[in-house]
Amino acid sequence: MKDSKALVMLSGGLDSATCLYWAKENFSQVYAITFDYHDRIENEKRATVALAKNAGTLELFRIDIPFIKEFSDFDWGRYKPPKKDKRWSSYIPARNLIFYSIAAHYAEFFDIKWIIGGHNKDDGLFFKDATSSFINDMNSLINHSCLDCDNNNPLTIMAPLADLDRIGIISLARRLKVPLDLTWSCHQDGETHCGRCYACESRSEAFRFLQITDPVISATTD
Asked: Sheet of 60-65: strands edge to edge?
């Protein structure tokens, strides 16, 4: 893989940042792509740009898709909210079907073989489009639609964090020297991480387990 190109799905969070630096270690040319959907958190956008610059990516493709919304952005006067679970608020219907399709569009134009997604071990337990079976199906669909792909060397989505939980990801991030202070995990758009949303809680719990200081959340909650 070292002589290949990779396109990293970059959100600005811990998982995608780790994937970006993992790609730097495993591929000779690294690009990144990010999606500015409806009312996307500004701190997340800034984190994405900062991480891409710090990693020296060849290009960051910023895709403006304002019509794509999270569940929390829908009019609950007409739509009944689903069960109470903090992850529902940031759920985007058909998210990865849309995002990977757009990524494949750019990958074919730029002759990039590998698309890198940051799905972790826990994602597939809640999000159906973060499972290994979904990724396998997407790989099949993408290559059925790709006119300029080599059938013997097809465009492939890869999820290097798929077998890791949050603790394992942080450990890998530290080994790869990911600038964790540049990441943004919170689902709120305040000046600092809220420390209460699902992403903040799971991140804080993992850092506490490892008995190391989170340069982002610890600095804002002490």
From this structure: 60-65, 29-37, 5-9, 114-116, 156-158
